[in-house]
Amino acid sequence: MKKLHICLCIWLLSVPVLLSQPVHPDLPQITGCVALVHARVVTAPGKSPVVANVITRNGLITHVGSNGTIPNDAYRIAADSFYVYPAFIDAFSNTGIKEQKEEQAQGGPPGPGNRSQRAPVDEDGNPSLEDAGITPFISTRTTFDPKSKLIEDWRNQGFAIAHVVPKGKMIPGKGAIVILSGKSADEAIWKEDISLFSQWSGAGGNYPNTIIGMMAKWRELYYNAEHSMAHLAMYSGAPMVSRPQYNRAHQAFIPVIKKEIPVYFRAPKIKDIYRALDLKKQLGMNMVIADAQQAWSLKEYFQQPHLHLVLSLDLPEDKKEKKTPETKADTTAVTDSTSQVSTDTVKVDPEKAAFEKRRAESYKEHLEQAGYLAKAGIPFSFSTMSGKSGDFSKTMQTLLKNGLDRDQALHALTVAPSKLLGIDQYCGTIEAGKMANLIVATKPLFEEGSMIRYMLVEGTLFDIEAKEKKKSESATNPSTAGMLGGTWSYVINIPDQQREGTLTFSVQSGEVTGKITLQEYSGGVITLRSIVVNKNSVSFSFPYTIEGQNIEVEYDIEISGESFDGSVTAGSYGSFPVTGDRIEKPN
After folding, report:
1. pLDDT tens by residue, 146-182
2. Which of these, 455, 426, 451, lies nearest to 439 by C-alpha position?
């Protein structure tokens, strides 16, 4: 009997793993080999789909082609109806990054009314480097959270790699290339200190807090770092030279001066770009204009060597005035004494009309920017820093409808960022020997109705459909209508202060949707996402922006009748207790 048992085990190990059940998103992968069988494979932008098998092992692509033997230990996916593409690369991002500890000390989570006090200064009136927002010595590792929900959110949109930078003010720190696998920081961080991140974000009540001050401070730091580098070189070769004084900010600038790493300058608006380019011209450093929203009129600049462009995936809203019956026309009845005929006279404000025309032109230029630059032959990548994962598909559809073609879009999300980050020998296309970063989609990418079915990130298989199904099943329990529907007031208890607002939930056709209002938030209401209901437990999140930085606010609450309590987590600002009561039931 024992011999039969051993033989049976050996036989089972020799049988290929078939796709009889979907991969569970929360279970460990039991084999390091995955085979996508008879898939339509697009190996690179501009290539037509070819039917092929793609085999991966231990994080690498080992075979791409119609021939070859599928290994016995492979987890096989019958991919006849699927399309396979190289996974996306985020060229500039805050994904997985927490706020720096120095900012946490200012007290409370982000939100209106949270004013920080002026920081202490030295005898010359200068604040510390941290209080001035100048921390070029900070590495991404110090604030990277590999378990951040945003990693999963962007991975579900097709991203496997991201160039992430710390959060902060004028010079937050140095960027790193990370793998969006959700593993530990040591496993996720691939290359450290590959860039220096800067932006036009002043230090509040401290120096430098103006554009002129920041430009002056940039020059001061750069020239002092050059001086320190020269002093250090003389000291190492001449014993009679005095010992250089160590300055961590200056030391962090030396790789920039040596042009070993570029400066990624976040410059959304055209004036931000001009100012960054002025610094580049004065100091001669290599620069990448990142998270750009208004670069279309500067195409000649981006034809220069050592200047690269990363476009923002945050498109502006169309603020076209909505016409109502009351605003369609201002009419005055003019009565003729003989004919009694009434004539409508429309009054038009010339200034308002000119403004509306310019607004419409600017909005159109935003939408056409990517297509315009691609047509001009200017390479660019995309940044998710100001974008939202839930808007990604819609954003790409909008760009495709306004001049960008599918091959150009795929190039900007794969080949272009891989070259920009110096990792094109490892990823960006589907080839044997490259990293197993793959998108498995139900239709051609960017086509209407196309959905991502699986993601492979360095060989780890993620079942997107199973994860979404799990969320959907939790959120569509029929009992949630009576338990969750309606409007609730809430109070967040923060030390020495409280935040109040309302939550509104509705259930239609089994789908739960919701919105939140925030105290003193001028933007109105925010749509909730990732709503999950499990019995009396409810969790959801929403994006929030503070001083140009995006965080994800997460709620976890327990409902008991007409009230609830739980916690609110605002990124690295911490968690705070929240309570609430239903104030209005659904109609």
Report:
1. 988 889 999 999 999 999 999 999 999 999 999 998 7
2. 455
